[in-house]
Amino acid sequence: MKNAKRWLVGLISFAVLLAMAPSTQAATKKKTAGSDPYGINKILKQLTQKKKVSPNKYVYLDVVLKPRNEGQLSDKVYAVNTPGNSEFKQFYTPAKFQSEFGQPASVVGQYKPFFKKYHLKSQSFSNGLIIKVSGKVKNVNKAFSTNIQSAKYHSNPVQFSKKKPVMPAKLANNVLTVLGITTIKQGLGALAKKQGDSSKVKAKYAPSKFAKHYQLQSLYGKGYEGQGQTLGIISFADVNKRDPEHFWNSEKINTKSNRISVKKIGSPTSLATNDAIGKLETTFDIEQSGAIAPQANIRVYQANFSDVGLVNAYSTAFEENRASSLSMSWGLSEYLTHYLKTQRLLTPVYGQVLNTVMAQGALQGISTFVSSGDTGAYNRGIGAKLGPISLPNYSTYGTFPADNPWVTATGGTTLPFSKKLGDGINISVDKERAWGGDYMFKAFAKNRKLFLSNVSAYQAMLAGGGGGISHLYGTPQYQQGVPGVNTFNARSYISNLMQPRMNPVLVSGTDYGRNFPDVSANADPMTGYQVYSGGKWLVMGGTSAVAPQFNGATAVINSGKGSRMGFWNPQIYQLAQDKDKTPFTVLDSDSNNSNLYYVGQPGKIYNQATGLGTVNFEKLFDEYQ
C-alpha cells in the first residue's frame, strides 16, 4: 500500500464572523457591520510576522444580510420534502426563497452605490441574503474603515484587521456578518490511494461494482441513465475535462458528449488548495458521478476552500438551480470550528450562515450529499504546545459540513475481500461491514514490523468511515425518535496515542446532536475504485467516492421519476422505520463492524458507523415518493 486514505479536513480559511452590535458612531453616523464579540485585539500578542497587506492585493468578501422569517425556514423545508404534507414537492425557486426569507430588492439595492463609491465590485445573489464584494485591499480598507494585515498564528497564515468593519448605519442595520476580512488557513491532508499506479483498467475496481452491488443496475435496464438531469460537483481545484472522458471511454461507458461545464467562482486567491491533491479529488468525483449517471450533464462549481468560497459555491449552484443533485468531498474537523471560536478567530455565526444557505437548496428540491470523512469517528484537534508548535490530538469530533442537518451525509463500508500482505500475513473481511481499519489489527499483532516499517500500511489501520454525533447542530426533526439515534455502542480501537487496541470493551451511552452519516456504501481503498488522472491509473477509496456515487444515483432516479427527489432525509428516515418499505440493509453488529469507535446497535435501525445502512436503489426507487 503506497499511501493511506486521509480525510481532506484541512485547507480552509474561516472569517471572523461578526454579529451585529447595537452601538452607533454618532460622529460619523456609521455603525459596526458586525461587531467582534470575541475581540481580534485580544489575540494580537499571539500573532507573529505581522505586516501590511499590499494595498493593491485583490480580495473577496461576502456581506451577509439578515434573513427574514428565519423561524419558519425549517418548517418549510420539511413541508416541501415530506409526503402527506399539502406543500409536498412544491419546490421553491430562488426568487420565491428571496420573497419569503431574503431581504427585498429595495434593501439589497442600497449597497451597490456604496461599494461603487469605493471602486469595489459588488454582485448580489437573488436569494436576497449575500452580496459578493471584490476589489483592492486599499479600497476595502476605505469602505469598511479596516486595516487589513497578514500574520502567522501558530504557524498558520492569518489575514486580519485590528479595526472592526463599519458601514453607514442605514446599511449596517441589515447586515448579519461580513465574511473574508479576517481569515485563517489550515493545512490540507493527503488523498487516499491504494497500490499506487496501475497500467490498465481492472474490472474489480470499476464503478459498475457500485451499481451492481446496490441494485442500481435494474434501473439502467428500464432506460434510466440520468438523461435530462444535471448533477453538480462542489470543487476547490481546477478541472481537466480530458481525464474523465478518457476514464469513461476506457471503462466502456456510453456517456453523453460535451457533458462537463465549469463555473469558476471568485474567492480569496491567497488561500489556494494543494492543486495536485485537489485536482485528483475533483477528477475522482466527476468520474464516479458521471459513470453512475452516464447521460446526465455535469456542472462543476469551482471555488477556493474558504469561508467565502464554500458559501459562494453552494449559493451559486442554488442560484442557477440547474443541478437537481450536488455532492462535495471536502470537510473540516468540527473541533476546529469550536477551537477557532474560543481562540477568537471564529464565532458561531458561520454555522448559521451555512445552515441558511443549505436550507435554500433543500427548499428548491436539490439533493445534496457530503462525504462524512475518512479517519473513522476521529478528527484532528489541537492539543498541547511544544514551543511555537501546536501538537495535534485526535478524538471523536464531528465533520463539518457533513454534520449540517440539510445535507445527506455519506459514510463508508468495506466489501468482502481477502489479501496477502507478505510474510504469510493475510487480511480478510467475510461480509460487508462498517469501514474501519480494525480488521487489520490481528495481522498487526502477528507482524508489527511489517506495519511499522510501512507508514502507509500503518495509516491504513487508522482509516475508516466518518461518523458520530455533532455538537454544532442539534438533532434534526427527521432523526428524533429513530431507534439508535442519540444512543451508541462503541469500542475504543485507537488509544490516545493513536495506537491500535486489540480487544477493546464494548461501551454504551447517549449523546445529543445531529447524528451522521445518514447512508453508507463501499469506501475502503482495499475494495475501492479506479481513477484516471494526469495520465495515470490509481486505485482510491474514501467516503469521497460515496458522495458523488449517490449524486449520480439520484440523477438516475430523477430521470426515471421525471421529478426531483428533493432533500432525501425526511423520507428515508420514515422508510427506514417501515419494515415492508425500507430499502436499507442495516449493519448493526457490535463486533467486526466499527469505524474505529462506533459500532452497530443490534436491533436498532441507526448507528453512527454506517447510519441507516446500505441502500437497495431498486427498492428506493419503488418506495420513494
UniProtKB/TrEMBL annotation:
InterPro entries: Peptidase_S8/S53_dom_sf (IPR036852), S53_propep (IPR015366), Sedolisin_dom (IPR030400), Tripeptidyl-peptidase_I (IPR050819)
Signal sequence coordinates: 1-26
Statement: the UniProt record of this protein carries the keyword Repeat: no
Gene Ontology terms describing biological process: proteolysis
Annotated keywords: Calcium, Hydrolase, Metal-binding, Protease, Serine protease, Signal, Zymogen
A molecular function (GO) term: tripeptidyl-peptidase activity
Pfam families: Pro-kuma_activ
Domain Peptidase S53 span(s) in chain numbering: 204-625
Coiled-coil regions, chain positions: none
Keyword Metal-binding: yes
Listed cofactors: Ca(2+)
Gene3D superfamilies given in the database record: Peptidase S8/S53 domain
SUPFAM superfamilies: Protease propeptides/inhibitors (SSF54897), Subtilisin-like (SSF52743)
Identification of the protein by name: Pro-kumamolisin, activation domain protein
Protein's organism: Lentilactobacillus kisonensis DSM 19906 = JCM 15041
